């Protein structure tokens, strides 16, 4: 078990190892997340539309 001073020292040593991404990298990955979210939402919209149409057709035929 380490004492609080050693703990703080270890935390600072670990924090010094952190490599922060560049602004361009952050902007690029953020844009990629938004584009992928848009594509997935479009995909699920189309799938939902197809399933809804199929179920409606089956219910109209049966009922």
From TrEMBL:
Cellular localization per UniProt: Cell membrane; Membrane
The entry's keywords: Cell membrane, Membrane, Protein transport, Translocation, Transmembrane, Transmembrane helix, Transport
Transmembrane segments: 31-51
A biological process term (GO) from this entry: protein secretion
Subunit structure: Component of the Sec protein translocase complex. Heterotrimer consisting of SecY, SecE and SecG subunits. The heterotrimers can form oligomers, although 1 heterotrimer is thought to be able to translocate proteins. Interacts with the ribosome. Interacts with SecDF, and other proteins may be involved. Interacts with SecA.
Location (main, coarse): membrane
MF term (GO), any: protein transmembrane transporter activity
Membrane topology: Single-pass membrane protein
Name of the protein in question: Protein translocase subunit SecE
Family: Belongs to the SecE/SEC61-gamma family.
HAMAP family: SecE (MF_00422)
A Gene Ontology term for the protein's cellular component: plasma membrane
Keyword Transport (UniProt): yes
Keyword field contains ATP-binding: no
Role description: Essential subunit of the Sec protein translocation channel SecYEG. Clamps together the 2 halves of SecY. May contact the channel plug during translocation.
InterPro entries: SecE_bac, SecE_sf, Translocase_SecE/Sec61-g
Pfam families: SecE
